[in-house]
Design brief:
Length: 209
Amino acid sequence: MRLNVNPTRMELTRLKKRLKVAVRGHKLLKDKQDELMKKFIELIKKNDELRKSVEGELTESLKNFMMAKAVMSTESLEEAIIMPTEKISLNVSKKNVMSVNVPVMEFVREAKEGASIYPYGFAATTGELDSAIKKLYDIMPHLLELAEVEKSCQLMADEIEKTRRRVNALEYVMIPQLQETIKYITMKLDENERGTLTRLMKVKTMIQK
């Protein structure tokens, strides 16, 4: 389907410029799409590895908690962990990856100097609870990294879809329309030139007679 324009030389020149820009834009977007896909696949692999690792560590920590719960009373367990020894906050910033603002997350730990990660004395608790607390403490940075990577994957996927739509719009709609319209105007101008040439030849013949 061609554009509805007047078949003039000025319009032809304008459309040729638009086509040149559209073709260049299509190439740039296609390159961006390919690079985004490459980064996305890398993130997906990293996400899969992190998830398996984190799930495994969480399972081990949960097992230790269940063992501690089996030995200790619910009241004793709750009393042991009710008062944490440190305060944790979260800093979230952004970094630009292929025009996508992906999150960068970081824990900020606030604790007294030399404070233990265990918020209880060891007399009334079990070794399983110690192991569960230690595993959870160690896993938190990995859990945060997993959240960061998963959000990055989501944002990257959204950007890939937007870029894909733009690439398709240029490749299957705008560029073919411009090419067809340029072809149509060129044919019309050629017809007009042939018509003008034919009239000039007739006038010349009449003058010669």
